[in-house]
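Please check the following for our workbook:

***
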Amino acid sequence: MEYRRAWRPGGWYFFTLVTYKRLPILTVPENVSRLRMSFHHVMQKRPFEIDGIVVLPDHVHCIWRLPEEDADFATRWRLIKHFFSRSCFVGKMGKASPALVEWADHAHQTTADEKQSNSRKGKRERAVWQRRYWEHLIRNEEDWRRHMDYIHYNPVRHGLASVPAEWPYSSFKQCVEKGWYSVEWGSSEPKTIAEMDFE
């Protein structure tokens, strides 16, 4: 079956980006900072807006809004992944909270070595990201809201926080400042996202 992506200029898109072999490289604070820099670097050259984002130990969820007459999210992701991969740390985790270490040990049984497939070695690619990513074209405001809720509740689902406000690597606090959420939101899982799973 041919793989097709939805292209719509000026659209809103939900994405899930996953690390190679689910290695929890985003438990390293320097890597999270590097990822933030990668987004900023690409946004300067190819503008887009981020409505919501969460960075978990081994994956990222986000919603982008692209400019009118522009549907090229693929190039943006390629540039972000490339910029990040040039200097990120992949190997033994640095200083991380006990909750993150326990999560990584349980979910992934992480090894210290960066392992690459023969295909990646032949193309001189670092084993940092899975090559593909999940993308979903946001259909309407209700769809946007559900995916925003999914993004911000995700750390609670993974046992990394008891409420979304506790997780430092998301846009939740900025959304609270915009009036989109109350700071107490997410004490229990919203019914609207109960069946959603983009892990």
User: Anything to note?
Assistant: The chain has one domain: 12-108+123-183. Residues 29-45 form the longest helix (17 residues).
